[in-house]
Amino acid sequence: MTITDDLQKLLEILPQDLRQELENHPRRDSLVEVVLDLGRRPEARFPHAAEYLSEQPVTQAQIDDCIQRVGTFGGDNRAGIEQTLHRISAIRNRTGKIIGLTCRVGRAVFGTIGMIRDLVETGKSILMLGRPGVGKTTALREIARVLADELHKRVVIIDTSNEIAGDGDIAHPAIGRARRMQVAQPELQHQVMIEAVENHMPEVIVIDEIGTELEALAARTIAERGVQLVGTAHGNQIENLIKNPTLSDLVGGIQAVTLGDDEARRRGSQKTVLERKAPPTFEIAVEMLERQRWVVHESVADTVDTLLRGRQPNPQTRTVDESGKVAVTRQLAVVNGRNGHFSSGEESLSPAKPVGWRASGQMLALPPLGVERERLSSRSEFDRLLDESFNYSDSFDLAEIQPAGPNGEDLPLHVYPYGVSRHQLEQVVSVLTLPVVLTKDIDNADAILALRSHVKNHAKLRQMAKARHIPIHMIKSSTIPQITRGLRRLLNIDDPEFADDKELQLFLHNGSDDEMDALEEARLAVEQIVIPKGQPVELLPRSAQVRKMQHELVEHYRLKSHSFGEEPNRRLRIYPA
């Protein structure tokens, strides 16, 4: 990378003693800014540290002396030094007198956009996000130069504070052939944006710091006219823009939508949800986390839709090393976990290969043998295969075998519930420790578990399942026994003849001793009298809630039961099959 900063011109506006201190400073080339506040010691700030330049506090005379050597301060309290990229920002008191200065070093860094050059060449609008000082304006300046000089496009820069192309009427050479339009007052930036499109026929508009609703609307107007936009906005991530009512239109805007019953059930969400209002103004977003580490969202629309549905996107992470080599990785966010929990990580962007029965359309092949096959001419091919089959178990590491589902799917099995209580499903999976993960996305599902009555009345669900080759398993009702039986059927696990302690916990509501005694009573009656002897049994009187739990437990054994008697002596009678 090539860096030009004209640092000497900035140092010349500082008081003599501070100038000499900085000229001889060992870290002079990495200086970020110099801060002069009335009555405080002058401070020099570097990328990861700050230090005082003098033990003497700054006087008003020193501040006034600096002001005389710089250009005029505009409506945004910023000034510059002609034909440089430096920025001097003022802090005023209540009467308008300047009592503090922030002297920011402006550098033109050639080669900063190597990480996203392929995106710039696509012609799509790009939004740069990041905290102050991370290098958004520097990247914007370089993008403008590359578009104008190397891609030969008509580029117009809307330079509100003269920060992109420097102070003065002649633009800084760092922007190349790009043209610059200055803005008289910051609040007029949106008007100048529209004026640039109407008067100067640009192919690309470059805007720094979109910060108001009018500027966001102007950006949308420009994008709708077919002009490529490159802009910056304050905010570390896209989530910040979604939550910012002023700038949310940059990513499409947000609106509340009321869903129909079937759609809300299919999504597993409330009937009123947030959705994107319109196509995003910017098609690509770049989150500048650090100077050498950027996160790229190739499709802002997909990212916003994913976030509004409560899931995490998986954008690219691009880094560049000291030799200039760009590494591209993909962030992975597992929601409703592939491993049963939330996690995140990165993978290299090598082409993904389909795995599992549903992805390949066939059963998985056995892994290759660990031992090298020996070909002996004296043996027939049949003898060789026979030998290998005998020795197979010795050379195959069983610990490395991944369990498979009933149709060869990778476990855990991803189940899409439809009309079934998600809470009860999670309870059954957790208590019985089944290798099942619930998913809200039908495209990621290995099977659908649905209520029979819902499937009969929903032809669209059957069509979607058929198109995606996803089996539908139906249960009669959303009860613990039916759900347990359905999940076991999905996993090809036989129902146990008798319930164990784990299964009893499924039917508990509060976990009180009374509930536990009632379930234990019902279990003993079923396992010791009703099933072996074929006789009906009456249980002790219980409350309505406890009787409901006993009914569910009896249903688990595929037996029938009825409540009879008057309160408070109403009780359960269990009948043999």
TrEMBL record:
Pfam families: PTPase, R3H, Spore_III_AA. Gene3D superfamilies: P-loop containing nucleotide triphosphate hydrolases, R3H-like domain. Coiled coil: none annotated. The keyword Nucleotide-binding applies. One of its GO terms (molecular function) is nucleic acid binding. Keywords: ATP-binding, Nucleotide-binding. InterPro entries: AAA+_ATPase, P-loop_NTPase, PTPase_dom, R3H_AAA, R3H_dom, R3H_dom_sf, Spore_III_AA_AAA+_ATPase. CDD domains: AAA, R3H_AAA. The keyword Metal-binding does not apply. Residues 513-577 form the R3H domain. This is R3H domain-containing protein.
